[in-house]
Design brief:
Elements (H helix, E strand, L loop, with lengths): L13 H38 L4 H4 L11 H10 L4 H33 L5 H13 L2 H14 L6 H9 L2 H14 L2 H9 L4 H29 L3 H6 L8 H11 L6 H37 L1
Helix pairs in contact: 1-13, 3-13, 4-7, 4-8, 4-10, 4-12, 5-8, 8-10, 9-10, 10-13, 12-13
């Protein structure tokens, strides 16, 4: 064996070591930026969680991030306010967000699958129009939607908030991208050759393959409807139909003349976060199981 064929151990010079250390330090910069961004986003949430545990006297005195002792009393006062209207607002939000996100996910699944797996005239035009809807701010559509609902005599009703939430251009966009990637054309063609009908192919083959993406669509739409303020503010006049966002806003407006209501607003904001956190934890578990099953299948 020649001397040139013998593997030589790698010799690290001082310059190589310094360069590696420099690269490691540069690699820490994105992590630090992400941590700062997370702290910036989570600091208001932490403040709400701590402030909701304080009584009115503790809240308006020197504030610290140490928890107070008034959480139970604050929840009782909030529940007793106007015979528990806050919990009516929470139920309304669950109705708007839950049913709206479910219907929106169903529409997105059908539309996305059709745009991904069928060839028809005007398909790309429809998709480009949907992309325009993704880029369009919702505030631009709020007034036209109100005029349409008023023309149909649906203003100040539950449907006036629910119906505009069903069609989500962003949800359809995500469903189309996911259907194109997750549902192979060969599988669809094989099912057609076996005599399966189009609805059966979608419901038995396409829908299970698209399920992880549709869960993401449901989460995005649920959060968007839950946090929506402008549309209910324009559509609704009866405060018993308000979602929790609009209800807390009216409570905050009344707090200008009754500062004691500020404590109820903060407590209500804290309770309004709980369903979103619970939903995210449940869906995060679903994502983990799906990734694990995909790894086992591969």
């Amino acid at each position: 064996m020649s001397a040139t064929a013998v593997a030589r151990p790698e010799v690290r010079t001082a310059s190589d070591t310094a360069r590696r250390r420099g690269l490691r330090r540069l690699g820490l910069i994105p992590t630090v930026v992400l941590l700062l961004g997370a702290a910036y986003c989570l600091l208001p949430v932490a403040w709400v969680l701590v402030a909701s545990t304080k009584s009115s006297s503790e809240l308006f005195s020197t504030f610290t991030f140490l928890p107070g002792s008034g959480l139970a009393d604050n929840v009782k006062e909030l529940s007793a306010y106007r015979d528990g209207v806050y919990w009516q607002w929470m139920l309304n939000s669950l109705f708007y967000a839950g049913l709206g996100a479910l219907l929106s996910t169903a529409v997105s699944a059908l539309s996305g699958y059709a745009l991904a797996k069928y060839r028809f005239r005007g398909r790309e035009t429809i998709f480009n129009v949907l992309l325009t809807g993704v880029l369009m701010p919702p505030v631009i559509l709020a007034i036209p939607q109100y005029l349409l609902m008023a023309k149909a005599d649906l203003a100040d009703s539950y449907l006036s908030v629910l119906l505009p939430s069903i069609l989500s251009p962003y949800g359809i966009y995500l469903a189309r991208i996911y259907a194109a990637a997750a549902v192979p054309d060969d599988v669809v063609e094989a099912a057609r050759m076996d005599g399966a009908r189009e609805w059966g192919i979608f419901s038995r083959i396409g829908l299970p393959m698209m399920l992880p993406g549709l869960v993401t669509v449901f989460l995005f739409q649920f959060v968007a409807i839950w946090n929506n303020f402008l549309l209910p503010f324009i559509m609704l006049g009866d405060d018993e139909k308000f979602p929790v966002t609009l209800g807390l806003y009216t409570l905050l407006q009344q707090g200008a003349s009754a500062p004691a209501l500020y404590t109820l607003v903060i407590t209500g904001a804290m309770l309004a976060i709980v369903p979103l956190i619970a939903l995210f934890l449940v869906i995060q578990r679903f994502w983990s199981l799906d990734l694990l099953s995909g790894a086992v299948k591969s």
